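One chain given next:
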Amino acid sequence: MLQSMQVPLDHVILFDVPLSLLEERIAKRAEESRATGAPPRSDDSPEVLKKRVEEFVRATAALSPFYEQKALLGRVDASEDIERVATQIRDFLELEPRPHQRQP
């Protein structure tokens, strides 16, 4: 797809996060949905998460060394809070921080 758009692939980001933390996050999101009276999302289950992670590993694990060799891979510790994750991404992409926009 990038090739058809004549856009070079110059960065690849791998979000490192333990499976146990993903499970906690999904459980929390499902809890929050129930607390507001909304039904939890159908994909907010440990079984669905496990299948997704297995598929991700199967389909992409072999690519990491390839992109690492080409110095394109950046690993982000996604177990951090959202601000720290965003900072890691900006640092890797060498982007300037954007000012926070507050909602009125």
